[in-house]
Amino acid sequence: xxxxxxxxxxxxxxxxxxxxxxxxxxxxxxxxxxxxxxxxxxxxxxxxxxxxxxxxxxxxxxxxxxxxxxxxxxxxxxxxxxxxxxxxxxxxxxxxxxxxxxxxxxxxxxxxxxxxxxxxxxxxxxxxxxxxxxxxxxxxxxxxxxxxxxxxxxxxxxxxxxxxxxxxxxxxxxxxxxxxxxxxxxxxxxxxxxxxxxxxxxxxxxxxxxxxxxxxxxxxxxxxxxxxxxxxxxxxxxxxxxxxxxxxxxxxxxxxxxxxxxxxxxxxxxxxxxxxxxxxxxxxxxxxxxxxxxxxxxxxxxxxxxxxxxxxxxxxxxxxxxxxxxxxxxxxxxxxxxxxxxxxxxxxxxxxxxxxxxxxxxxxxxxxxxxxxxxxxxxxxxxxxxxxxxxxxxxxxxxxxxxxxxxxxxxxxxxxxxxxxxxxxxxxxxxxxxxxxxxxxxxxxxxxxxxxxxxxxxxxxxxxxxxxxxxxxxxxxxxxxxxxxxxxx
Amino acid sequence: xxxxxxxxxxxxxxxxxxxxxxxxxxxxxxxxxxxxxxxxxxxxxxxxxxxxxxxxxxxxxxxxxxxxxxxxxxxxxxxxxxxxxxxxxxxxxxxxxxxxxxxxxxxxxxxxxxxxxxxxxxxxxxxxxxxxxxxxxxxxxxxxxxxxxxxxxxxxxxxxxxxxxxxxxxxxxxxxxxxxxxxxxxxxxxxxxxxxxxxxxxxxxxxxxxxxxxxxxxxxxxxxxxxxxxxxxxxxxxxxxxxxxxxxxxxxxxxxxxxxxxxxxxxxxxxxxxxxxxxxxxxxxxxxxxxxxxxxxxxxxxxxxxxxxxxxxxxxxxxxxxxxxxxxxxxxxxxxxxxxxxxxxxxxxxxxxxxxxxxxxxxxxxxxxxxxxxxxxxxxxxxxxxxxxxxxxxxxxxxxxxxxxxxxxxxxxxxxxxxxxxxxxxxxxxxxxxxxxxxxxxxxxxxxxxxxxxxxxxxxxxxxxxxxxxxxxxxxxxxxxxxxxxxxx
Lengths: 489, 489
Fold this sequence. Notes:
Two copies of one chain form a homodimer. The first copy, chain A, is α/β, with parallel strands linked by helices. Chain A has helices at about 10, 25-30, 55-65, 80-85, 90-105, 120-135, 150-155, 180-190, 215-225, 250-260, 295-305, 310-325, 325-350, 380-395, 420-440, 445-470, and strands at about 45, 115-120, 140-145, 160-165, 195-200, 230-235, 270-275, 285-290, 355, 365-370, 395, 400, 410-415.
């Protein structure tokens, strides 16, 4: 019998990344999940960028709009046609409603053409589809660091593409610069890697920040100059909760077109990735979107969408929901308010115990700075600290290394996948941990002095925050009043 | 500026196949769709393997089971958890219900392990996922002809795989033989193409036949001897409407395991593709399944399923529906009855005008033999005849060449995507067309004689069939009483 590898190289390799050590936190959570009464000492899941804060608004809308479901007496007459519909253009009302929603999220300052909306299986499918359209195996995309770890799976695993990091640094609040772009591009070229595009994540996961207009324009100029694609992943666009507001690449494009004379950008290079999983909080429904200004990419991505179409049952529900403009406007405002409140609670809770985090205005997470707690400024020390946080503090946060961060000591802390009470428990644990750490690390003499002053101060400050939060959670606008702990398999 | 190809080779190539001439029929239908009253001379769509005959049973179940929907008052308490659930293992009740359904379809003669059920975006996604798991670019799968044209897109487009045809012939009712397999395998080897697997489609699209136990065992022996994978695409398994019944590869496996001593097959080589789109008639819901006996393939395919998960809204509906065993049993029996009745109507309608079709017992189509109507035994002549059928007879059937059939003159005729009345109109058109053809083709003298005899006989026979059908459609068991014409885009 001929000796040969039975499976593909993809199946035999580890390009998916799930076997990396970064999944240890998930394993710890899965084996010992926190529950306020059943398992109060369990691990709290803060590694999941899930938006649960306003799902009650979605649920309320669904309960008030039975006609939106093909399974209700009011919507059943659509059942057959919907069940049979498999056209990869999608239901017309779905693409129209999604385009309109994308406009609303961008403050109605831009227009989206529904015929350019291409469906995919979540942002995961959208990223891969676009990668298959834009580049060949061995070619690369530039990606500013830190970046979402799933990019490696989505953009490279089955496509054979490479990601070339563009290093951003804390000294500059991780801002993307032209110099960093040029430097990464040159490095790739030197290694004989053809760069085919630049991927921007705006708002950023894990930073929780938005790209400003100047950076977007600079990035677009860069892509245009190099004749490479600019992919803007805007899946967190509706999580922006305070100024400066979100600027979509679509606005830059529209401004350029509306400007004097011809648009000097090659629009064929510009593409947007979108999804409803984060902004509306229903990742289970698998609604991913590719929006491209390039006709050939729209046509090709649409053909590829056959591998991950959105269920028509879900298309119809989403179409009806997003066509309700009053609901959409109310949801966007209230969701932003709740996210802002939760973010403030977490950032202030951390600050109260002297832990910094990157100032941000978006996302379902904050970027926590624990550099001062590292034994040394290395990723080994970061990993060591992370294991302590998981196994002793019992919080599953995500280490910066998993986001390809260039500097050790940063951690992503997700805060929108839990209720207020759980968030408070998490902050209390961090408070206690930081206090313990300080006790251990300073010498006895300074420790005594610090105990009388510093620690007391921190504890008082933290207690004040806690009291405020508890007061506030009694208000009728509190997003959740009961513990929300789910068994994720 | 550096000159380079802006998009990928995949995007610039035509591996998708949609631009092939075989889409002419779809275009003709799209631009002039038949409607009994609004457009009675339009094109009837017989190129779509869609199962509409028993969707009313599904709809009825949905109307009677509001708790199955997360959008109903009875099911709304599941809304949040379902909307948030994105675990690629799927909802447990979903994988259990699908496994149970697969058992029921196979007459409860086999067991399926729910933990081996992997989701995908329809059979389209399932085929591609499995291809990505099993083989590397340039490697090949053997596929008996004629085969489903979508295989080229699903198995080769983005994966870089090749398909090597295994030629089957009408002289043998297109039966697959060991000799044909060996010959295709040897030919590939001679061309330095590494064969990695054999894909069987059982029941066959387009043949409408099932593979018998001996052929399945022979195929499994072949795969095992060569140490290549055996992929069984069983997406039409519940469309079998008469004896000989359907034999799944799962039965062969189970028998082998249960047999004396060790199973001599390498189970790591055996994989099943499944879907609910054909058997239950809801392609819009995008429920595809990979079932593998190979643990590594299950694990890898599950990771890949992130690119095309089934919407949890749909998972929950399907789980509830397929858990209702009384419904499932009733549906399977009634659906088979209706398909058998429609198939008989079409086959008899064709036979009545002297048109043959391959004897079959499954599928949503029959394999029509128009070899006698070809000007010459060539694919050019087939294409010419096809264009006449589309543009003059106004039926969008599919030519054998699009299925990689080795012999010209065969056409796939789909019959389950329409109501009885439309099917009758289609048969009338074929009747008239065949009659006209004969008039033209025979010489005047013989034509006169034939007119008095043959044609009259055909017309009478056809009229008798029509009367029978009309009578039967008045019965309370008629699947559809009103015209069912949908606007597809």
